[in-house]
Every structure is written in structure tokens, then in C-alpha cells.
From TrEMBL:
Residues 80-162 form the Transposase IS204/IS1001/IS1096/IS1165 DDE domain. It comes from the Bacteria. The lineage of its organism: Bacteria, Bacillati, Actinomycetota, Actinomycetes, Streptosporangiales. Pfam families: DDE_Tnp_ISL3 (PF01610). This is Transposase IS204/IS1001/IS1096/IS1165 DDE domain-containing protein. InterPro entries: Transposase_DDE.
């Protein structure tokens, strides 16, 4: 596993973005540690010696830059899974995110699932808007597996040939296009 490198950065150094609190190496290590090793943001912050909010902001920004802002991440996607996830354990504010996972390789038996997108909250409108951002060819071809949260039944309205059903082995509603 790549290790972070702490220390002073020379003025004019290209090892970090201007005004960045973490170097490029630390950001790469942090993303890998969270995704592959399942480290928490608290542990990342401790290792790179910054506040939790500093580590969280940097990792979210880098994750969006490297993963979420890549339009090619939807290429070849045939099956997606949608579920809500408790992102933060706070008393105030929305603690949920809607997680969209690609299940194509898992369903084909050729590899693991992968994160496609995360949407703040778990509202019907948030997912509907994100799905509307995809081109019609994607919406017409994709199959979806969703949890039983009522808001996710929006998929039926947005995917023209979707059919709702309950999977026997789970409590998730299964939606498939014909």
C-alpha cells in the first residue's frame, strides 16, 4: 500500500495543488486507503496529521475529480444497484446518501461491483434528477436493483420498460428492463 509522506513542501513545489493541505501523494494514499483498505476518514486524518474536516474535504474533492467527474465511468454499464447509506452519524442535517453501484461485472461473473455515483440525501427527486442527466440510450438499456425505500420506486417512472418485483432472497425490489 502506498504510504503518505509528511513534511514541509518547498515553495513552488508541484507535489501539491496551490493552498492544498494534503500532497498529491497523500491524496492518492487516502483514496486507496478508503476504497481498498476500508479505512475511516478519522484514521486518514490521524495518519496525515490534519483535522477530520480537512481530510474529509480533500478526499471528497479528489474522489469527485478522479472518479465521479469521469464521464466514461458509465460506458458498458448494464446493471446498477441503488441503496441508501448512512454517511454520517450526526444529530442535525441529512445523514443519508444514495449510492449507485455498477453490478454488471458481478452479474456476468467477470469481476466485482464498483461505485458509480453518490447523491446527497435519499429523496425521490435527487435520484430522478441524476437519472435524467443520463442519456436516453443509457436509461433504455440499464437494469436496476433497488432497496425497498419508496423513493427509489421512481426508477419505474424513469426507465421506460422497467418492471417491479421482489427478490426472494432479499428484501430488495428488483427492476429489470425488457
Amino acid at each position: 500500500m502506498l504510504r503518505p509522506l509528511r513534511g514541509q513542501m518547498a515553495r513552488g513545489s508541484t507535489s501539491a495543488e496551490p493552498r492544498a493541505k494534503l500532497s498529491r501523494r497523500e491524496l492518492r494514499w487516502a483514496l486507496e486507503a478508503i476504497v481498498v483498505q476500508h479505512l475511516t476518514v478519522a484514521r486518514i486524518a490521524e495518519v496525515v496529521a490534519v483535522a477530520w474536516s480537512t481530510a474529509n474535504d480533500a478526499v471528497l474533492a479528489e474522489g469527485k475529480r478522479v472518479l465521479i467527474n469521469d464521464p466514461a465511468r458509465f460506458d458498458g454499464v448494464k446493471v446498477i444497484g441503488i441503496d441508501e447509506h448512512v454517511w454520517r452519524y450526526a444529530r442535525k442535517g441529512d445523514k443519508y446518501v444514495t449510492v449507485i453501484i455498477e453490478l454488471t461485472a458481478m452479474c456476468d461473473g467477470t469481476g466485482p461491483s464498483r461505485l458509480l455515483d453518490m447523491i446527497g440525501g435519499r429523496s425521490k427527486q435527487a435520484f430522478k434528477t441524476r437519472l435524467a442527466d443520463r442519456d436516453p440510450a443509457f436509461r433504455d438499456a440499464v437494469e436496476a436493483v433497488v432497496d425497498g425505500f419508496t423513493g427509489f420506486k421512481t426508477i419505474i417512472e424513469e426507465l421506460p420498460d422497467a418492471v417491479a418485483g421482489m427478490a426472494r432472497s432479499t428484501s430488495s425490489a428488483s427492476l429489470a428492463t425488457h
